[in-house]
Amino acid sequence: MRFEAELDIADALDLDRALSHGAATLKALGSDASLDARRSAALGDLARTQTALDLAIPEGGRAARATDEGGRVAREAVHEGGRVAREERAGVSRPDLLHAREVVLHAHFNASDSVLDATGRLEEGQRLVLLDHVEDWCTDSRTKVTIHPVIDLNAELTTPAYQPTTRIREAVILRDRTCVFSWCTRSARRCDLDHVTPYDAGGPTSTSNLAPLCRTHHRLKTHSAWHYETTAPGTYEWTSPHGHRFRRDRTGTRAIDTGPPPDVPRPRRR
């Protein structure tokens, strides 16, 4: 049976993460089915499982009296559920319940900014999102909100080590957004950070010498004649084995030379 639905973008992303988690769990339990089959099975599990019950009862709560007051506790549990529902409707915080969603906000400021813009960019899918929608997500009592202020993505960050620091990695991800290979749209958060000038050849581990490459295109760059260079922060020029050149920046990919682009491998879904 084919199933399609139109959802609020936040609900769609939450569902996608839940299905990915369920598929990974099934694989860890020994399933050798394909990813799509495991995601389908995970959706069925969600349909058969009630995840909204107030099961996160702290030790010492009413559930602890179940052995002493069997019949009455059953009635109390129903009453407790009603109280929880009323608290949710009233916006009362329940620190003992798990967060249903996590929203991470990257606030970009300039020296002249006094208020936030009315729109922002959603990292998943590189979509624009209204500030009103973000406000709705963040005011839900079940949402965990984390704010990361980003002052200047053009600042040069460096470390003497081969592995970039968390701060360097985050700056590169936010600057480039996706894999920087021509026409690739895989999220930078799921990519390797590649030294444009190899570390062994004296290339520094710095924001100006690091670029996100998905695993497929990282291997392509390492084991084939494809190569690239940085011409400006966030701007890269690629050269194919046949000599065709392409410029990739935050607006997309453009051929520097005339003629159709060569066929290149695309990253496979995992």
Automatic annotation (TrEMBL):
Pfam families in UniProt: HNH
One term of GO molecular function: nucleic acid binding
SMART domains (alphabetical): HNHc
Renumbered residue ranges of the record's region Disordered: 239-270
Highest taxon listed in the record's lineage: Bacteria
Domain HNH nuclease, first and last residues per copy: 167-219
InterPro entries in alphabetical order: HNH, HNH_nuc
Protein name (database record): HNH nuclease domain-containing protein
Organism: Nocardioides cavernae
